[in-house]
Amino acid sequence: MTITQPDLSIFESLESEVRSYCRAWPTVFDRAKGSHMYDEDGHQYLDFFAGAGSLNYGHNNAVLKRALVDYLERDGVVHGLDMSTTAKRTFLTSFQNIVLRPRSLPYKVMFPGPTGTNAVEAALKLARKVKGRESIVSFTNAFHGMSLGSLAVTGNAFKRAGAGIPLVHGTPMPFDQYLDGKTPDFIWFERLLADQGSGLNQPAAVIVETVQGEGGVNVARVGWLRRLVEVCERWDMLLIVDDIQMGCGRTGTFFSFEEAGIVPDIVTVSKSISGYGLPMSLCLFKPELDVWEPGEHNGTFRGNNPAFVTATAALETYWADSSSMEKQICARGEQVLEALTEIRTEGCKEYRGRGLVWGLEFHDKQRANRVARRAFELGLLIETSGPESEVVKLLPALTITPEELDDGLRILVRAVRETA
Ligand code: PLP
After folding, report:
1. Could you point out which of 247, 312, 320, 363 has its C-alpha 20 to 30 Å from the C-alpha of 341?
2. Is the Cβ atom of 115 under 6 angstroms away from ligand 1?
């Protein structure tokens, strides 16, 4: 593809230096549909990024768009703080009937604010309030958001440094497979919990991603997650699963922890819950944990009613029959796996993933960035993750067609070969 020089001057002169994705993809995007984005010059890009996991049903999904446009046209409430609205009632009813009840999940639903980090902050606050303790345990290479509470349980040194103040009351423990593969799981964690001389304050909660998205697509094994539940129960700590990136079907089931058969005490959900890329997040918790006083945690943009409308449409369209959605994700995942197996011999150290989230790590740590850059030139949007951006992360929409997926995988294979 020939890339003409786009006019980026206003972004470069006025927008803050903090911008990042636009540096990796130096063009001006104008339209997007399904698994494709289009820039102002009409170049088409296949999207293996899906809004960092916020567009599991693709861009401008027709069913969701219809519901949204109809709602706006009838002057449905757009902004409502936490007022009771028709749109919120419909969402809550669908969420209960389609998501919670069939999975026998007992959760209450809190709308903590528009973005993922709002849900994490609410989860941490609630755990601390319930247990009356400050300390939270997180895991190496975790990512939970950019506000201060979330950063305190995030691993990445560069992101943490941005806080500008000490990040306290969080203690990192080794994530699954972080050590040598021989050390028994949780041996260090339990030793510290048991030892009155360890210096670890009794934690209120443990926060975990079942697959660490930003941390390099690190997959926790089912057995490790089950053991984590036992450790939490034994030591009276709440278990928070951060399903912000891995929820809403990304790993093959609606919640990423379903495969492990566990029921976390608190779950955070955001990104693809609205289905349309509209800001929305949820903090779910067992009813006995609902110790909030009215208004104790609030925020202006908790009631994003257009997001309730698209979220309801997404649940009804894709999850009313969960098993066919799960089968589709599994089939697409197999397709990705085949391509990654082919790439395996091309300087690749490891590939790993579940459902439709996959990571490709190279021996040469710089290679992932080169692959992503070359993929962009060839018309594929794909990002890197991991502490040194050493992993190419595949995150296509769950609704991508087999043909589109094949097209993107072909570009990826080519980009890998051309960056050897
Ligand atoms: N938690 C996880 C697991 C995430 O992947 C992210 C974002 O990537 C967040 C929290 C923060 O979400 P947000 O960027 O919407 O604040």
Report:
1. 247
2. yes
Per-residue exposure over 293-302, b if at least 16 CB sit within 10 Å of its own CB, e if not: eeeebeeeeb
Cβ(245) – ligand 1 distance below 6 Å: yes
Fold topology of 76-319:
Aspartate Aminotransferase; domain 2 (3.40.640)
Separation of CA 309 and ligand 1 centre (Å): 22
Q: What pLDDT does 245 receive?
A: 98
Please, what sign has the CA dihedral across residues 355, 361, 366, 370?
Answer: negative
Task: Please report the pLDDT score of residue 64 as a whole number.
Answer: 98
Residue 403 burial (CB count, 10 A):
8
- The DSSP element (H or E) to which 409 belongs, if any, is helix 402-418
**Given a cut of 80, is residue 298 above it in pLDDT?**
yes
Q: Which of 124, 171, 113, 118 minimizes the C-alpha distance to 147?
A: 118
Write the residue with the smallest CA distance to atom 5 of ligand 1.
245
Ligand 1 pocket member 149 (CB < 6 A): no
pLDDT of residue 2: 58
Per-residue model confidence (pLDDT) at position 3: 55
CATH code of the region 9-61+322-417: 3.90.1150.10
CA-based angle 128:132:138, to the nearest 5? 40
pLDDT at 49 over 80: yes
pLDDT tens-digit profile of 115-125?
A: 999 999 999 99
Q: State the pLDDT at residue 346.
A: 85
Domain ranges of the chain: 9-61+322-417, 76-319
Counting ligand 1 atoms within 8 A of each CB, the residue from 49, 54, 56, 144 with the most, and so the one to mutate, is: 144
Burial of 109 (0-12, 13-18, 19+ CB in 10 A): middle
Nearest-atom number in ligand 1 for the CA of 145 is 11
